[in-house]
């Protein structure tokens, strides 16, 4: 059984923005996409925490 992650459209757009901001054209490599997902998640987490304070 494969592990499938279903992402919301806003998440996909944020990850694509992160890839473009690092100069990646198109989808990028799997490693680049994973790095973008981590960066996007961490930046959302920081933004959420800053709103709480």
Q: Give the overall pLDDT as a whole number.
A: 89
Measured between the Cα atoms of the first and last residue, the distance is: 42 Å
Count, helices? 2
Low-pLDDT windows of residues: none
Approximate strand percentage: under 5%
**How many strands in all?**
0
Largest sheet: none
Radius of gyration: 12 Å
Q: Which sequence of SSEs, written as H and E, runs from N to C?
A: HH
Proportion in helices: 55-70%
Q: What is the molecular shape?
A: globular
Task: Set down the secondary structure blueprint.
Elements: H1 9-21, H2 30-52
Word description of this protein:
There is one protein chain. By secondary structure, the chain is an all-alpha fold. 68% of the residues lie in helices and 0% in strands. The protein has two helices and no strands. The chain has helices at 9-21, 30-52. Helix 1 packs across helix 2. The N and C termini lie far apart (42 Å).
């Amino acid at each position: 059984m494969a592990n499938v992650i279903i992402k919301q459209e806003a998440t996909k757009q944020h990850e694509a923005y992160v890839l473009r901001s690092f100069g990646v054209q198109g989808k990028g490599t799997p490693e680049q996409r994973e790095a973008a997902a981590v960066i996007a998640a961490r930046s959302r987490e920081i933004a959420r925490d800053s709103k709480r304070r």
